[in-house]
Amino acid sequence: MLCAAALRKPDVVPVAPYMGNHGSWVAGFAIGEYCRSGKVMAEAQYKAWQVYGQDAVVAQSDNYYIAEGFGIETDHYIDSTPTLKTPVVKDLEDITRLEVPDPRKAGRMPVYLEAISRLRELTQGEVFVRAPGTGPFALASHLIGTERFLIELAEVEPNSRAEDLLRQLVEICNQALIAFAKACFDHGAHGVQAGDSLASNDMISPAMYRQWAFPYEKKFFDALNLYAATHGGTTLLHICGNQTRVLVDMADTGARIIELDSKVDLKVAKQMIGARVCLLGNLNPVTVLLQGSPLDVELAAEAAIAAAAEGGGYMLGSGCEVPPGAPQENLKAMVRAARKSRY
């Protein structure tokens, strides 16, 4: 994984499907328990690794573990991820009273840090430990409510008090993400990420992405890349949807790995940015990994490798999170396809 992230050729193509809650399903834990216990999360991910033998485990479940540190209220369920109940920003002036939470104490961030530490200990350096991490644009929406956040951005007047407050909101979220990511490295992660899914071009325009998401993502990676190097690790940016129109911008953030959703043509991405960053992706989590057969998975994996692996700097992965119920034989077929792909 680290070899590919450095744009070199490892012995085989690394394979790293994004298996957060799928890990809880493999191990037989309810998601409601899994997302609130670092011990359970680590045990589930370790079990999934024993079953599949993939090249990365990930301490991941839901979106709100950082936002809870700011004071939002969430609803929790037995076998599903939490949902937002009450935002912390009811009036834009509330933004001025926000403070960066301590990742070692606030919200459920300590759950994920514990899971990272346990995974590093359990796997003994044999597998890449991937940290979770929301993006600055997405995290801002969790504090105010997604629909309201997008409407505020669409209606904001340039150089207004509202614009200044909204920028303060994204900036303090970015500071919280940087603090959490550094704590993830301190607890043993090999890679940290900004998962800025709301910044998708399926949700906002390229112009809005460049104005409201890109500058803060770049600050995130500017702050983390040196820290990553001192910890022998790397950094990753994931944004859902078809990001073809902003692929160059995503590479310009400074992320070492760009994880692509299944809507992006891997061959196009390789041509556009493959010489600059490592690409990770992008089998369709639903039509291929959940609904397809092992042969479908193998063929899709071979096609992805053919499109993006030449020259190195590529990891086979899922376009986004693997569904909990995806057949185990499908994930095993994905790993087998990667193991056969030698440079």
Task: Write the element-wise H/E pattern from the N-terminal end onward.
Answer: HHHHEHEEHEHHHEHEHEHEHHEH
CATH topology: TIM Barrel
Largest pleated sheet: 5 strands, parallel
- Helix share bin: 40-55%
The number of domains: 1
**Outline type:** globular
Which band does the percent of strand residues land in? 5-15%
The assigned CATH architecture is: Alpha-Beta Barrel
Record the strand order, biggest sheet. Answer: 5-6-7-8-9
Could you tell me the number of beta strands? 9
Distance, first to last CA = 15 Å
The number of helical elements comes to: 15
Compute the average pLDDT: 97
Helix/strand structural class:
alpha/beta
Radius of gyration: 19 Å
Kindly describe this structure.
A five-stranded parallel β-sheet has the order 5-6-7-8-9. A two-stranded parallel sheet has the order 1-4. A two-stranded antiparallel ribbon has the order 2-3. The two termini are 15 Å apart. By secondary structure, the chain is of the alpha/beta class. Helix 4 crosses helix 6 (109-123), helix 7 (136-144) packs across helix 8 and helix 7 packs across helix 9. The chain contains 15 helices and nine strands. It has helices spanning 2-5, 21-27, 31-34, 38-52, 67-70, 109-123, 136-144, 146-155, 161-186, 206-230, 247-252, 266-273, 285-290, 294-308, 328-339, and strands at 56-58, 73-75, 83-86, 128-130, 191-195, 234-239, 257-260, 278-283, 314-318. The longest helix is centred in the middle third of the chain and has 26 residues, at 161-186. The protein has a single domain (24-277), classed as TIM Barrel. The mean pLDDT is 97. It is globular, with a radius of gyration of 19 Å. It is 48% helix and 11% strand.
